[in-house]
Amino acid sequence: MKQRILTGDRPTGPLHLGHYVGSLANRVRLQDEYDCYFIIADFQVLTDHLKDTTKISENIRQIVLDYLSVGIDPEKSTIFVQSMVPEIAELTMYLSMLVSIGKLKRNPTVKEELAAVGIKENEMSYGFFGYPVSQAADILIVRANLVPVGEDQLPHLEQTREIAKKFNHLFGNVLPIPEAKLGEFPRLPGIEGQKMSKSRGNAIYLSDSPEEVAQKVKRAYTDPMRLKATDPGHIEGNVVFAYLDAFLKDRAELKDLQNRYRAGTIGDVAVKERLTVILNEFLAPIQERRREFEAKPGLIGDILNAGIKRTREEGKATMAVVREAMQMDYKKILNK
Length: 336
Ligand code: TRP
Description:
This protein has 13 helices and five strands. It is mostly helical. The model has no long low-confidence stretch (mean pLDDT 95).
């Protein structure tokens, strides 16, 4: 039997190059070897986007298109929407009894997210506070063995493991203890050097046009110490070189560009123009596939319906053993 993987995304907007390098490329590779489940975590959007729920549905559609266009294959992998699998909400209820408020309060990722939206801990909703428990249910509902994630998700995974261990300790060996699988590549910075994110407006999206890509690359942070193209430049901390490293397949050319930049024999404008070409060549076939998928009526709905159905079957099987282990299946009194 193949090992099972679960990971996913919040539908807060289209996916960008950071998602590709940090996660999507890896998923495409993993889907042959593993039984993959990809969750579109719409409950999680409510933690900090409660006022614009109108965008969630279109964002879900866009994320599925992003997945398909990079090569996630719904014949091999299961794509589903979190809230459409009610067994997840049900499992969340049971799991919520297995974690203390003290533990949840110490979750560094939740703290950071709270700071990012600028609300005080006491004003945070119960759902926001508890979403790591719901995320544990996302993982445990399909009994995943591996969870490919970025570093920011490690506290959630640790919490998931603790919850699963506690469940097993109390009720018997029911839930597999999942493991994190960190990506091999360092996080791709946003164009101005900070963490790439939608809210900072510093991301290059998989769906950006060649002109948008060119404009964004023009704004990219390079070496602030370098005033003239003939000054020796630094490639460390240089966003253009971080992107070249991630997307330039010809490693000899990369070495050559790095050497010339360090020596001061190539300017910022030239390396940015080269990067623009490379990114647009990378994005062109992805966008071509995206247009093909988009043109097929009903395709997204069919993929999601099939994925939701498959995940619910797994979820029902998990809930049956969870309830039985907890002696909460009430077979006797319900004449089953
Ligand atoms: N929290 C993840 C993110 O923001 C998305 C997510 C939801 C997830 N449920 C998950 C990731 C389960 C891995 C496993 O990116």
